[in-house]
Design goal:
globular, transferase, YpeA/RimI_acetyltransf, GNAT_dom, 11 strands, 29% helix, Acyl_CoA_acyltransferase, Aminopeptidase, alpha+beta, acyltransferase
Length: 245
């Protein structure tokens, strides 16, 4: 939660609401993590919806095993809020088994603005989404460090970032350049990022990966990551629903 903090946050009766535009849904959703007060759920939803409308965003809930109240997921489901994008939070309990790769590629540090622009171009992000991404990186309470994995001649291969919080390192926004996908550069990038995190004092790592992203799931399993828990999103706004939901 700290590493994914948004500069546009508010609280509604114990719930944390993030209202930052961008591709990352975790930065524009309701995180129902705190105990609520006396307001009925219907009233809470109305207040949340008002905040999202003012921000020009559709209402979106992120449902985790820690959401409060415990019956929130069932309550939303019974009222037609559709569930989508199940995502695994995975952990790597130690980093001492990692060894440098022999690929010849190296990490090049990047500014938040340059990183958001280049990653956004690979994802097809809008200018508003790119600006929102850069803003989150620069204002997060946990320091984000962005890198490009590149060939000795400077050709970019992949992009990624680490967020260091004490001895805990998070991997975020792992993107391989389209022309180099399927060649193992994602694994090389993640290995080098984790080694960099270890050099800076990290002892363990975490990441988030979509359940249906089979290549990424295989990559992270190969590095030793294990699932800690799974979350998903819910919305009653058809604009947010992926195709087929």
């Amino acid at each position: 939660m700290h590493a994914a903090a948004s500069p546009r946050e508010t609280r509604v009766d114990g719930w944390l609401i993030r209202l930052s535009p961008g591709k990352a849904r975790r930065s524009r959703c309701v995180n129902a993590l705190g105990s609520t007060g006396e307001l009925p759920l219907d009233d809470l939803i109305v207040r949340c919806r008002r905040s999202f409308e003012q921000a020009g965003l559709p209402v979106l809930f992120r449902i985790t095993p820690f959401s409060q109240p415990a019956a929130l997921d069932d309550w939303l489901d019974a009222r037609g809020w559709r569930a989508f994008d199940p995502t695994d939070v995975q952990v790597l309990p130690h980093l001492d088994h990692l060894v440098p790769t022999s690929s010849g590629a190296t990490l090049q540090a990047m500014s938040a603005d340059a990183y958001a622009t280049l990653v956004g171009s690979q994802r097809g992000s809008s200018q508003e989404e790119i600006l929102g991404h850069a803003e989150r990186l620069k204002t997060a309470p946990v320091r984000h460090q962005a890198f490009c994995l590149q060939q000795p001649n400077g050709e970019p291969l992949a992009y990624g970032q680490i967020a260091l919080d004490g001895t805990l390192a998070g991997l975020f926004d792992i993107v391989t350049v389209a022309a180099h996908r399927g060649q193992g550069w994602g694994r090389t990038l993640c290995t080098e990022l984790l080694l960099e995190a270890r050099r800076q004092g990290a002892l363990e790592a975490y990441l988030q990966v979509a359940v249906d992203n089979a290549p990424a799931q295989a990559l992270y399993a190969g590095l030793g990551f294990q699932r800690a828990y799974r979350y998903h999103y819910r919305s009653d706004d058809p604009r947010t629903w992926p195709e087929g939901v």
